[in-house]
Structure formats: structure tokens, C-alpha cells
């Protein structure tokens, strides 16, 4: 599991979601042909977070980009980096994968058929304030969730104020925010 995915997992677990990282979606041969990837292995989702009380599944794609310029709005929106943002740029792929995800989870009785699936992006670094604002607006128009670097930082700070949890993200944040006496 990726370290950034682990941080995202910890945040969503603290919000009452059941979370699985590196979740494999078992596409059928017909579905693989439909998405133009007939020899593709199982599709892997970075983070799948489920909250039964509201019947919601969040599919969270994680892009840390900590040692790079960060996520840029034009790179995601205009398909400039289509390979990095497949689920965001390929509607058929997204529909097929999300449909199979829901079928897979309902067949295993992990959730009900009434559950909704929502696409999300968690970013450890965004290129600029303008990109952050543009991405937020774009995601709102699409009905997706955008968890920016600032949001993640705020959520980690909240974790540092919570009770003890034996999670790397929580312990690290507590150490970094501790006031020396």
C-alpha cells in the first residue's frame, strides 16, 4: 500500500467509513472489451470508502505528487495527462468499473443495491491556489469530491487533537504538532 493512500485511509476511517486500499474490481471479458482493454488484469482502485448509514461508496484516486509541481487543473480537465487520470477522463471506463464494483459488493452482501458510488480525488500537493479553486469548481460541476492538500492537512490536524490511535498518520501528526514543554 502506498503511504499517501494510508493517510487517506486513516482520515476516512476517522470519519466513520469502512475503508479498503488497493481494491481489485473483477471485470468480465466483455467489460474489458467494452473499455478497450481486453487483456487487462483486474482493475485496481486506490481507496474504496463505504459508509452504510448513507449508502455511499467513495472511490478515491490518490495523487500525492509531493516532490513535483503538484496536480494541475488543466492536466486533469483537458485530458493532458489522460493516462494519470483515466477514471476522470474516460466515461465508459468509469461507468463499467463502478457498475462492476457495485455488483461485486452487493453480491458479497457488503452493501445494498441502493448504494451510490462517487468518484473522488485526494491530492497531496496542488500546483497553485488557482488550480485548487479551479479543480474544486470543476469537481462540483461533475458531482465528484475533491480533497485538496489543504483539506488533507486540516484533517490530519484534527486527528492530532483526537485520542490516541495506533496509526502512523495520527502518531506522526501528533509528534509534529506537539508543543514542547
Overview of the structural elements:
This protein has 181 residues and is an alpha/beta fold. Helix content is 44%, strand content 20%. The chain is built from eight helices and five strands, in the order H-E-H-E-E-H-H-H-E-H-E-H-H. It has a five-stranded mixed β-sheet. Helix 6 links the parallel strand 4 (116-123) and strand 5. Helix 1 (3-14) packs across helix 7 and helix 7 packs across helix 8 (168-177). It is globular and about 60 Å long. It starts with a helix and ends with a helix. The model has no long low-confidence stretch (mean pLDDT 91).
SSE blueprint:
Elements (H helix, E strand, L loop, with lengths): L2 H12 L3 E8 L3 H6 L8 E9 L4 E8 L9 H5 L8 H4 L1 H17 L8 E8 L5 H14 L2 E3 L1 H12 L7 H10 L4
Parallel strand pairs: 3-4, 4-5
Antiparallel strand pairs: 1-2, 2-3
Describe the structure in brief.
The chain is α/β, with parallel strands linked by helices. The chain contains eight helices and five strands.
